[in-house]
Amino acid sequence: MHVPDGFIDTPVSAATGVVAIAAVAISLRGARRELDERTAPLAGLVAAFIFAVQMLNFPVAAGTSGHLLGGALAAILVGPYTGVLCVSVVLLMQGVLFADGGLTALGTNITDMAIVTTVVAYAIFRGLVKVLPRSRASITAASFAAAVVSVPAAAVAFTTIYWLGGTTDIPIGKVATAMVGVHVLIGIGEAAITAATVGAVVAVRPDLVYGARGLSKPLELRTTPTGAPLVPGAARTTTVTAPAPALVASPAAATRSNRPVWIAGLIAALALAGGVSYYASASPDGLEKVAHDKGIDEKAKPHASDDSPLAGYSVKDIGDARLSGGLAGVIGVGATLTVGSGVFVVVRRRRTHAAHPVQGQEA
């Protein structure tokens, strides 16, 4: 659903740019509360994984394909604020390096694909986990439902933006019907990918899934002073918070290294982008198909980075399509991981500095 240059007029593109900048600024502050010793090292990997999976267009109808948007996946794994930043980093890398999504439309794409999907998905996810049984299956089911809804929500958001600033005179009702219809189908694919990924992480390391936190219930422990026998009237009751039984990790989970998960995730991202992406559907995605069928693309402009060495997810001057596309995918995963990790390391350090100010600087 990457919006190219020329679809949306300058005033509305500028307005969505302001919205995107404000949302990113808010998310940078919010991510300081979300990123800790568990999630900070994984946030950059989540961005890289989303980049890789977005290369895997899957068929949804005759002549139409779809791909992961990633807002639901990122929000559930690392938190909604961090999720906005993850998807924004992906969109930035795609626009600058691969000529995917217009540069003047970057604000529109961040607003649509990063903000709307993340906010809608996480709101639905949190609402569901509050009413569903406390179990890993509930986390997976809530992830599926949240992802399903987030994609047509993004389609509605694009339709609204197009209604406000579209550069062609197309009846908005036709645009809305076509966009929502095809993106409901794409949402099913998004949900399957999101639920499978979240379910896999929850199965091995539930402590690393941000959306699984807070699923706890009070547990009363009766304790006595050190050395005193447990006799009537001598015990005192302490209420602590314990994870729900179905979500309990091993006792050493808090001290377990994240490295195996990080390595496995990176290998998966590299394999998907560097190899599996060759077999992705070549059909236009939902927005491209609707734009062509309805005439939205009449005033589309060439991308400013069309001549870049990686434009179109292929390495310039390499004739073998499999090698060219695979190498471009690997470069994209590496670039996204590097930039994303850099952003989250800085955010994490700012959180640490705020919690432990340098002596002499305290108020």
Description:
This protein has a single domain, classed as Arp2/3 complex 21 kDa subunit ARPC3 (Orthogonal Bundle). 59% of the residues lie in helices and 6% in strands. The strands form two sheets. Strands 1-2 form a two-stranded antiparallel sheet. A two-stranded antiparallel ribbon has the order 3-4. α1 crosses α4 and α6 packs antiparallel against α7. It starts with 9 loop residues before the first helix and ends in an 8-residue tail after the last helix. The C terminus is likely disordered.
- Report the count of strand segments: 4
pLDDT < 50 runs, ≥5 residues: 216-222, 239-246, 359-363
Radius of gyration: 23 Å
If you consult CATH, what is the topology? Arp2/3 complex 21 kDa subunit ARPC3
Spatial order of strands in the largest sheet: 1-2
Give the count of structural domains. Answer: 1
* Strand/helix succession: HHEEHHHHHEEHHH
Broad CATH class? Mainly Alpha
Q: From the helix content, strand content and strand pairing, which structural class follows?
A: mainly alpha
CATH architecture annotation name: Orthogonal Bundle
Overall mean pLDDT score? 88
Total helices: the number is 10
Helix content: 55-70%
> What is the molecular shape?
globular
Q: What characterizes the major β-sheet?
A: 2 strands, antiparallel
